[in-house]
Amino acid sequence: MAADLPKRILEALKASEWWTRKTRDNGRTISPLKCPECGFSNAWAYSAAPWAVVCNRQNHCGAVIKARDLFPDLFISIEKDYPPTKTNPHRPATVYLHTRGIRQALEGLRYEFWPDVRKTGSGAVMFPVESDRKVYNGRLISPPPGEGKTHNRGSTAGLFWKHPGLSYDPAAETFITEGIVDALSLIEMGFQAIAVLSSGQDPGNMDLSHFGKLVFAFDNDAAGQRALKKWIAHYPDAGAVMSPAGRDWNDLLSSGGQTAGKTFEQNRSEYEFQARLALCKTPKEYAETYYQYMKIPPGLFVFDGSYHYATVKMIAREETVVAARQSNFTLEVDHFQLNSTIQDKPEYQYHLTVKPKSGRPIGFVASAEDLSQPGQMTKLFMSRSKSWWQGERKPSMQLARIISEATAPTVRTIQTIGHDAESNCYVFRDYMITPSGETVLPNEKGFFGVSRRKYVRPPSNGVVERMIKPGRGKRAVTDLYEMLVSTWGFRAAVGFAWMLGSWFVHDIAYHLGFYPFLSFHGDTHTGKSSLIYFLQMMQGIDGEGLPMTKVNTSKGKIRELAQRASLFHALLEANAGESSRFDFDQFLTLYNFGTLQTRAKKTTGLEVETIPFRSALIFGQNFEAFSSQAMRERVISVHFPADKIITAESKAVYDKLKTVPRPEFPMVLPAVMKHRQALEGKWRDYWDKARRLLSGYGNTRVEENHAFVLAFHWLFTETFQVKYDLSPYIQDLTREKVKEVEHQPAGLADFFFDVVFDLVVAKGDTAKRVIDWPGLKNNGASLTPPPSGKLALNLNGVMDLYGQFRATVKDIQTALREHPAYLDSNKGYRFWKESFEVVHPKKAWIFDLSKISRAGEDSARPDYQDDDRPFG
Fold first, then answer.
1. Co-location of 428 and 317 in the same domain
2. Together in a domain, 548 and 654
3. Is 112 inside any structural domain?
4. d(Cα 807, Cα 782) in Å, to the nearest integer?
5. Mind listing the pLDDT tens digit for each residue in 237-249?
6. Does pLDDT of 629 surpass 60?
7. Is the peptide bond before 32 cis (omega within 30 degrees of 0)?
8. β-pairing, 362-366 with 425-427?
9. How far apart are CA 158 and CA 286, in angstroms?
């Protein structure tokens, strides 16, 4: 019926963290496996029916972990993978029972599959309780979180279930369970069993006189123990068995397979001992019962909602078991909180839930110091939960051991948002993306499950405070992309593709070890910062970026740069002159994912601590102030000229873009990550293809950098079926960058000269009043031109005419004096005038035109204005 399901479980097991290098399959069993509970490699599973992983450390762990708990995705999809058919309408129910190890007991069994029970999305296997089938009891196949697993139709009060295909022998033992699956498990082992369907049933309303030898076999939990006492009071001659705490009869069947019945008989005395403990009326009786069977006192144990401690003392020359109450509460370990901020020095905190004997449960956090001494414990419980603990050293240390060895989940608080290297998941405040690309929401406590009993918690402050919660809207990823491109053309496509690549820099760093910076530069009011802001929102962050100031190299800002992993950071031009004092070369090593900071550990040795950089950087600035060739060739530079961007059409789309609800933008990242596995598997081939296309321009590093943009744009357009060719633009961008790196030093002075030449075109005669070079003055000019090949300008006049310099006069003066074209800064000069005007000399700066790269150039940057609007 589900012959391939064990094979799929086996494949999942092989791919899991529990399959070790020493694990072997001998055809009957698979061992050794790493136990998902205790972590020791002493577990095993059946080869043909790997429905459970069983730990052999019986005295320390002994866990039985069902495959459905290890690989829930395989079982959630049972209804989809094994749907009902016309000839077999109850097929999903049959497969479900097979996964519980129930096969032989299906003979003569009546059961049905009911889809979408209680509108939970989960079907159920339902068993008729009465012959006329008016009353049903069953359980959901894949109940969603917070939904009960049992389901009834009609009242089961006073009714019990028995196997319709089994002839019950009145003289044989009949085991009484609560649930039908437990009863079927015992029947599969070869025993008679019935189910009373609820621990709350009234024994006085149920006639079990047909069964001569009753053996109660309820679960070993609080409800099962209460039910056992109630039923034994009504049937005092009946027997009783209980499985060890935390396990049920289906666990025994799953772990024992065909030998489960034999295992039951071998361990029956232990099961009867567990039942005797549950029936004890006083703590002393419990301690004596334990001592008689185990030959040692129980030490710290729970009885009637409190902790008690038992020892053996010599009283009147006889060994006497003495039990004393230690508290007025019991507790549970909710989870362990792991703080691994400091390398090689992890620290655990213990999140406890105290359950007073009378009162509501209280949760609080305890440290190792709180649990280290009896006096500390007494203070802890009184101050945090208004409960008392009076245990001395031995009971206190036993309680500390119970807490530290609890099978509670470990929650690791991560320090960054984005990619978490340990789990290989992307973790954000409101969602997590798994290695398969699935989006997972946090549980009710704000944790994300990354594996069995292992959870992560996003940071509680810092960048998470600026995150935007994604919300579904009417626009798809392609709609937002097209709006960006319709506003900024090819430049937006470059930014979008570079952004996609930045989301995979952990993989890029592993395989190649570098990722380029991106720079948006050019005229003011062209929307450079706005485009960066929209890209930031697409990765779920509200904010343009950090200003490029010297203070942003401080410890606080360095740590802020470390708070993202496989998400980009933006650095924006600061106010008046601050950016020009910003040392860009300090970021050189970040191109290769170097460290942000290294500091000595507080030890006597040579150890150091490092703050890693696991992100990518985009710069937004009016002019590029990259002073060194090494920095320039690591940057993809995208120029934003006002005359080619600001149009009536682009402004209309931009205005529409601003009306898009903010929660729609963060949906881009999870939508892209649905294809995570495909993108991670393809990007290297696409990058290599793009690198070959861009080869031959004369600078391998520049070519490889630009290949990232082209590769991820190809991946995007292929994945989302978008038709938009970025290749010609990237080829021209690569060619221009190689030319700039090799021949044109970049900096504040170069930007200033660009402004000078642009002003002459834009301002005409007004610009000639402060700028001059041979041939610039018109025929009506009566003034002598500057010497051949020289540029003359009045610095203050140029700055006033442009009006948009954010650098200070002092910074510009320094940059101009350091430029190779500089000749003089204090030359008296008569600039152009109208014939009727009186001309007065002005202070002029003189430069050698031959050493200014733009002067005399015939070709300009490629004009893509006509091609920038493919969607408008």
1. no
2. yes
3. no
4. 35
5. 999 999 988 889 9
6. yes
7. yes
8. unpaired
9. 32
507 with 591, same domain: the answer is yes
Selection from 638, 618, 672 nearest residue 504 by Cα: 672
Q: Which two tokens stand for residue 726?
A: 């970025």
| Angle ∠(122,124,129) on CA atoms, nearest 5 | 155
Mean pLDDT of all residues in the chain?
Answer: 86
Higher per-residue confidence, 585 vs 553? 585
By mean pLDDT, which of 78-92, 108-122, 290-304, 831-845 is the weakest? 831-845
Is the residue at 336 inside a domain?
A: yes
Q: Which two tokens stand for residue 91?
A: 């097929």
Of the candidates 54, 73, 92, which is a domain's last residue? Answer: 73
Q: How far apart are CA 41 and CA 34, in angstroms?
A: 4
Quick check: is 856 in a domain? no
Q: Is residue 787 assigned to a domain?
A: yes
- Report field, pTM of the whole predicted structure over 0.85: no
Domain boundary (73, 97, 121) is at: 73
Nearest one of 67, 63, 62, 75 to 51, comparing CA atoms: 67
Phi, psi of 375 (to 5 degrees): -65, -40
Closest-CA residue to 151 (of 315, 142, 633)? 142
512-558 confidence digits (pLDDT tens): 999 999 999 988 888 999 999 999 999 999 988 887 765 445 555 66
Q: Are residues 415 and 404 in the same domain?
A: no
Residue 868 has pLDDT above 60, yes or no: no
**The domain spanning residue 637 has which CATH number?**
3.40.50
pLDDT in tens, 15-48: 888 899 999 999 888 989 988 887 888 898 888 8
Distance separating alpha carbons of residues 192 and 175, to the nearest angstrom: 6
Task: Provide the pLDDT for residue 866.
Answer: 36
Which residue(s) pair with 639 in the sheet?
521
Q: Does 722 share its domain with 588?
A: yes
Q: In terms of Cα–Cα distance, which of 18, 83, 23, 81 is closest to 52?
A: 18
Pairing relation of β-strands 790-793 and 822-829?
Answer: unpaired
Instruction: Assess whether 436 and 511 both reside in one domain.
Output: no
Whole-number Å distance between alpha carbons of 228 and 226: 5
Strand 299-303 versus strand 306-315 pairing type: antiparallel
Distance, in Å, from the CA atom of 504 to the CA atom of 515, rounded to the nearest integer, reads 10
Same domain, 308 and 337: no
Instruction: Look at the chain and report how many structural domains it folds into.
Output: 6
**Domain coverage including residue 833:** 748-851
564 and 676 co-located in one domain:
yes
Residues in CB range of 576: below 8 A, 6 or more apart: 806, 807, 808
